Amino acid sequence: MAFDPSKSWDTYPDIEITLNVNGKNYKVKVKPYERLIDVLRYKLGFTGVKEGCGRGECGACVVLMDGELVPSCLVLAVRANGKKIITVEGLAPEGKLHAVQKAFLDTFAVQCGFCFPGFAIAIKHLLDKNPNPSEEEIKEALSGNLCRCGSYYRLIKAAKLASEYVRQGKIYFDVKR
Amino acid sequence: MSTIFIHRFDVVQPSSLEEALKILAEEGESVTPMAGGTDVMILIRDGVIKVKKILDLWPLRSQLSYIKREDGYVKIGALTTVTELEKSWLVNDKRYAGFRDVIIGFATPYLRSLATVGGNIGTGHPLSDIGVLLLTLDAEVVLLSADGERIVPLKEFYLGKRKINRKPNELITEVRFKEAPGNSSTAFIKFDRRRGHSMGYVLVAAYLALKGNVIEDVKIAFDSIGRPYPERAVKTESFLKGKEFSLENIRKAYNEVLPTEMSRISDYRASAEYRLDLSKVLMKRALLRAKERIESR
Ligand SMILES: Cc1cc2nc3c(=O)[nH]c(=O)nc-3n(C[C@H](O)[C@H](O)[C@H](O)COP(=O)(O)OP(=O)(O)OC[C@H]3O[C@@H](n4cnc5c(N)ncnc54)[C@H](O)[C@@H]3O)c2cc1C
Ligand code: FES
Ligand code: FES
Q1: Which of A77, A84, B208, B284 lies in the 20 to 30 Å Cα band around A55?
Q2: Which positions in chain B touch A68 (Cβ < 8 Å)?
Q3: Do B126 and B117 form a contact (C-beta atoms < 8 A)?
Q4: Contact state of A69 with B5 under an 8 Å Cβ cutoff
Q5: Model confidence over B35-92: pLDDT tens digits?
Q6: Cβ contacts (< 8 Å) between A122 and chain B: which residues?
């Protein structure tokens, strides 16, 4: 159920902000203390954004904000007003898979999958800047993303495969059913 | 359900520096400035601090994010992020190569786009990579309030554990240091079990200026000398100054002089003995790295 501030004892003001998430504009009322991750998950339903630690240490919550990689657990929602946000849900159009997602499936990179949205966004951020990264550059770019299942070997393999797809111009793939 | 904070708080977003200063002048201690928030957000989350109102400095980024040379100084705007440092000319200037060391080991890639230079010294925390390096460049902190400007040498800026020389109505607007001479360079080393994503057991930064093989000038800073904030090892520095740059002299400096001015703490991460030992070795490595940089053309 959506949070209804009018029924709350909370006297902090509601601030109306506009977020562009995955290409669509949303007007949403937020509290001053709300974090971007809370608004994305609980007010807009982008539950692909995961909270691993809530303190900038795990990378599960990273999103692109105006093209920059940021931990949504440390950004106040009011600060994202007017910004363009990309979450894992917005990597590919409806019914398609992004090269990063396809590469993850092809390499069986994840186990539980909790870390995947963060890794996917971090890899996209890397490939947007550098479509031909070395293994060192991949490791550096993903150094802040933790995988509790320890799937790092395959995650790096997936990042390499994704970069190959991107270099071949294969950005979107059809979902096989 | 949509907050994890025990203590809730208000936020004010100023549209200009003047407005921000006005808010601080009127409300002073009841507002907490927030730059990147990578420190403040966590202190709030952990309940270490209770804030009434956050003064969001991010809207001032267009004014306070810059790296420029002016009047013989390198001036860095307080809201310059680590990512911006990384993209700037500063890291390609061999005199300031210490910044390269800082950036490579700084937190994680996604925190670097939030963490600011002003925030780094604003934490007043000993494990502040940028602060430790800036000490060796004799940096000054520019503070601005509705009453005017105040300039404080960085070495007088740290007052205690998480205590800084800032009045409640002031903002840190800039950090600056005099351009270093061509025969000098800097290096920074943070030692931990892994390369990235670490706090470091010991942090050391060195500034070195050589005339031939003679140490014309040297500045060495650590995360702590004894007090819980970054400081310079001034006795060790003055021992080395004017001497020949040799392993023997450096060894004398860290074996005979450094221990007289440094007292380390033991905690669950490392013992005092180990920290002192590390301090010696890392000081040597930082000086050697700075020398190597001076000599590379
Ligand atoms: C996971 C993690 C890893 C980290 N790794 C490192 C690391 O490797 N090295 C390191 O040095 N630090 C590290 N930090 C600490 C922190 O990220 C840095 O100190 C950072 O530079 C703080 O900058 P900020 O802009 O986010 O500060 P904020 O959190 O916004 O502010 C810090 C303090 O300074 C004050 N302040 C900030 N800007 C101003 C201003 N302009 N005027 C007046 N007061 C101001 C605030 O009120 C607050 O008290 C890490 C933190 C986390 C969470
Ligand atoms: S939840 Fe944001 S970094 Fe872990
Ligand atoms: S696959 Fe489980 S955390 Fe990475």
Answers
A1: A84
A2: 83, 113
A3: no
A4: no
A5: 999 999 999 999 999 999 999 999 999 999 999 999 999 999 999 999 999 999 999 9
A6: 109-110
**What tokens appear for A53 in the block?**
């630690």
The domains found in chain B, sorted by start residue, are 184-295 (3.30.390.50)
Instruction: Give me the half-sphere count of Cα atoms (radius 13 Å) on the Cβ side of residue A134.
Output: 2
Structure tokens at B91: 């890291």
Report the residue of A7, A14, A62, A69 to disrupt the B interface, i.e. the one with the largest count of B CBs within 10 Å: A69
Instruction: Residue A15: list chain B partners with CB under 8 A.
Output: 11
In order of their start, the domains of chain A are 15-90 (3.10.20.30), 96-174 (1.10.150.120)
CB of B56 within 8 Å of any CB in chain A? yes
What is the three-class DSSP state of A117?
helix
ipTM value for the complex:
0.91
Q: Is the CB of B143 under 6 A from ligand 1?
A: no
Per-residue pLDDT tens over the stretch B263-294: 999 999 899 999 999 999 999 999 999 999 99
Q: What is the DSSP string of A91-109?
A: SS-TTEEEHHHHHHHHHT-
* Strand order through the sheet with B53-56: B10-12, B53-56, B31-34
DSSP, residue by residue, B97-143: THHHHHHHTSS-HHHHTT-BHHHHHHT--S--HHHHHHHHTT-EEEE
- Distance between alpha carbon A106 and the CA centroid of its chain, in Å? 20
